[in-house]
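> forwarded from #structure-qc
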């Protein structure tokens, strides 16, 4: 099993994004209700957040609730929202102790009132922390985010604040929920599914993708280190040749 000492601290991804998947299957394997899986998934959230901060990762983005998740049975949605509110409320002192700033991306206004309020309070109370930013993707979908960005830019163009010909990657990125954050270099998905599921489609253009069979409640620090080690053993070429990359590494 991988340990923290195996990791090269000079080659860390600045931003890691995770699709936390498999809570339901984990619970079913144990003959329990799906929400039991989500409850146990919180321990993995805590573990991975701690591991990321200890390593020196600057941004950790977790896909906690997608736009599509609203279509789940009402009892599961309600239980997930309750779990989110409770967890966020409970974790604020720990986030502050560890100097972790909380942020959120997604259609946050569509969250239930108490969830939105708890989230905004926690974001406000942790806003001065600068060791790591923990980003929760809530009521998030990439297609929603992209359409929202197009609308914002179109409004600016209508008011002549931006010329259509000047719209470039920088302007587009700045209209996304993730504005001001670097793109993730590593995207992890648990549970054996090899899909992106409408997550950060623009931002992961050059991310390394890591898929593991582990179900989210079984994904802890060691599994997180394993994913980073795998990332560190890859060659990131950004469209260049292997020889060009080796030459620039020698300089
Ligand atoms: C996917 O598993 C998981 C979710 C939709 C929710 C993730 C939520 C948590 C881990 C709990 C709270 C999180 C925070 C940030 C406090 P699934 O239900 O799709 O599993 P399945 O594919 O096996 O059905």
């Amino acid at each position: 099993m991988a340990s923290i000492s195996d990791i090269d601290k000079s080659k860390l991804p600045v931003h890691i994004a995770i699709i936390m998947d498999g809570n339901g299957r984990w619970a079913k394997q144990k003959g329990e209700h799906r929400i039991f899986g989500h409850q146990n998934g919180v321990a993995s959230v805590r573990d991975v957040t701690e591991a990321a901060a200890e390593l020196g990762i600057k941004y950790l983005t977790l896909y906690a609730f997608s736009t599509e998740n609203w279509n789940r049975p009402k009892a599961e949605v309600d239980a997930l929202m309750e779990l989110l509110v409770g967890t966020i409320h409970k974790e604020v002192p720990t986030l502050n102790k560890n100097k972790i700033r909380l942020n959120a991306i997604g259609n946050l206004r569509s969250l239930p009132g108490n969830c939105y309020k708890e989230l905004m309070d926690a974001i406000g109370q942790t806003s001065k922390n600068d060791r790591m930013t923990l980003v929760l993707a809530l009521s998030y979908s990439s297609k929603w985010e992209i359409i929202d960005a197009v609308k914002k830019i179109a409004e600016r163009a209508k008011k002549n604040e931006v010329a259509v010909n000047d719209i470039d990657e920088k302007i587009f990125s700045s209209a996304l929920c993730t504005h001001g954050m670097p793109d993730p270099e590593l995207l992890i998905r648990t549970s054996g599914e090899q899909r992106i599921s409408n997550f950060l489609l623009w931002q992961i253009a050059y991310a390394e993708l890591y898929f593991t069979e582990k179900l989210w409640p079984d994904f802890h620090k060691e599994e997180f280190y394993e994913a980073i080690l795998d990332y560190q053993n890859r060659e990131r070429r950004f469209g260049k040749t292997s020889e060009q990359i080796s030459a620039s590494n020698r300089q």
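QC bot note: The chain has one domain: 12-140+186-234. The chain has eight helices and six strands.
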